[in-house]
Task: structure prediction
Amino acid sequence: MDQLLQFLISGLTVGSIYALVALGFSIIYNASDVVNFAQGEFVMIGAMSAIFMLKAGLSYPVAAFLSIALTAAVGLALEKFAIEPAKNATVVTTIIITIGASIFLRGAALLIWGKEIYGLPPFTSNNPIRIGNATILPQNLWVMLGTAVAVLAVKYFFDRTRMGKAILACSFNKKAAYLVGINVKRMLLVSYGLSAALGAAAGLLVTPITFMSYGSGVMLGLKGFCAAILGGMGNSMGAVLGGLLLGIIETVGAGFISSGYKDAIAFFVILIVLFVKPSGILGKEEAERV
Amino acid sequence: MALLDVKNLGKKFGGLKAISDLSFSVPENIIFSIIGPNGAGKTTLFNLLTNIYPPTSGSIFYNGREITRMPPYRIARLGISRTFQNLQVFLNMSAIENVMVGCHLRSKSGLMASAIRLPSVIREEKEVRRMAEKALEFCGLSEFSHKPAAGLPYGLLKKLEVARSLASKPRLLLMDEPAAGLNDTETTELCGLIRQIRDSGITVLLVEHNMSLVMEISDKVLVLNYGKLLAHGAPKDIQENPEVVAAYLGE
Amino acid sequence: MKRLSGFVLFALACIATPFIFPDNYYVTVVGLTIFVNIILAVSLNLLMGYAGQISLGHAAFFGLGAYSSAILTIKYGVNPWAAMAAGALFVLVLSYVLARPILRLKGHYLAMATLGLGIIVHIFFVQADQLTGGPDGISGLPTLSLFGVPIDSDMKWYWVLCSYMLLSVLFSLNIADSRAGRALSAIHGSDIAAETMGINTSKVKSHIFVFSALMASVAGSLFAHQQNFVSPESFSFFFSIELVTMVVLGGLGSTFGAVIGAFLLSILPEVLIVFEDFEVLIFGAILIVIMIFLPEGLFVALRNKATMLLSRRLGES
Result:
């Protein structure tokens, strides 16, 4: 029982990170029908830049803010220079462009920050809190809290603000959105920026627990993709749910089977979901028009 | 016996009844047209007949055999072929290759035999090419046979779909709005082509908006309105049917 | 024989190269890598280029072939050829079972499923150390013999891999120009139309999936014997991506496009070695730039340009 509680705590922690990455995925997917394989690199860039800004002597909050802003700028640049020029690209083409972007960003990170593994200090004290026989680190709580705040903010943005609604309009029908006077190009940029910022936030939250290096983004990105599919591609809250679930399944699976197979368990679950219900938990089935 | 028998066919999309309780039969070797206002369910009917999606209720018999919910490729095997309202040409191939795909059912080389290119494959290839050329010629497309399909104008692509279907030597051909987007000359040509198809022994099921075309060439006409059968009969009777007139003029 | 004139030229070039440049590092060492990559790219192109089904896990089948050979020959003393056949049989069964559920998916979902498959297989190579030797892999494979001649030098391997490579290219060209190939292209063009033309699309797709997996598996077995060593690194997610890049770089749907793509990407590291740390960055940049400006691929774009110029010339005269 205690063991299960412990798994649940770690599961929700990684799950929160997956949820943020998956949320970023689904924002971009909704706005532009692109599955962004560089999503994980946003996480890595957010964390790595914060680490080096701290090293350069900036205070934690300033470094955090600047690294999120920097990553958002990378997101904007990705849209501007890699996605926008490839008009009318097929699914395969956009997949390869974003894979290319992922490799490119990783290459850049390797050049700038090298191959070493870095960590970030926890936001507050590092004294474990005991719940029965299970322990929880303050940083675990920060991760969950940070994720909850980010998710609610995103939800507020899409439900309540003019710009959020305009982005949603683009995702339903670009031409119609354009005709009612929405600047579709700018909305795409905003969604990439927002998605990158979410990624960076995930990176800041998780690095005090798991460390970061130039290549850490790949697996995080792929897991975010898994979570987005698990929840239902294109459904933002589904993505969050998928992320949390994936985190828990993975941690429990790793605990009971073998930690070496942790990643395999996640992908195995996704394969099963794809075989049984590709539209995911909250997704709708689509019919092809002839 | 009728070639095609539709019994109590129904299709719902969510709560919307696209087709409800539709029954009719199509005798062999005629041109049978299905007309109706926009959204009457004509294309849906074609998609049900070829099982692009399955009906919610009812059954379809072809040549005395039930084909409801049979996989589309098996329906094709029985001799039913179709064209599409919004073209489904293989734009990644040349015109003749498109039509050669139509010959799929009349040839049989498998993957391994093709990879090794057995003598039987080479022989069959020649035969298929000849059949495809014949179908292209029938539709007046011979001069375009080696052009990439992606570069052909709309009117020719419509004909190319017909040629592709004919290459499979169907017994029943479903044509979904073949005249849409064609100019007057092209429509007249199409008229002749559809007649020729019927005269070659193929039953034609036609969905069309162009009334003068329908009334001119059809042997029988069926009118759909909101997914229901409104009238059914010879073109002349349909033209004089007050209910049909009302449906088209919008009450 | 106009149909195969390109193939004959290519084959002659491959045969002539070691005579023109004897004992050249780029021929006998890099050349072997190029051949293996060409086989893999050509087999992936059958699935991705012809049938239009993306696969981000092709390296899995390559790896399963390689590991089958390594494990069976070293741990169980099986004859290398029998081990190769056993590996192929295993891949055949596995790919056949997986083909239908996987290929029912489209677009991003298909990408995810194939990617997942590749990653699971790779993790298995790393984790099942009792069987696979873990991250260190397995070394010391026995020498492969062909008709009693041991294949024990780079030059002999050149001829073996060259033959298999040419065979793969020939198969691929033959398929393109056949009923089976047209069925694949038809599925690529419009799977609904393909189905209504009587093509059993799920069967055709799974057949090409299995065929392509088999080609990769045999390539894996040969690769294992040639390297004398297998380790998980050679069969990672990144290698699957590299294979996709090869196919796309040359031009999806063109056999020689896959050949050119594999060739370029295999020598790229040799060239980029000068730039050391810039290698990853440049690799990513090439991918993006090609996809934006030449989405049809390098080889196909050049070929189309050439035919256009040629037909214009002929039109003028």
Strands of chain B lie at 4-13, 16-26, 31-35, 57-62, 65-66, 80-82, 172-176, 203-207, 220-225, 228-233. The longest strand of chain B covers residues 16-26. Chain B is about 40% helix and 25% strand.
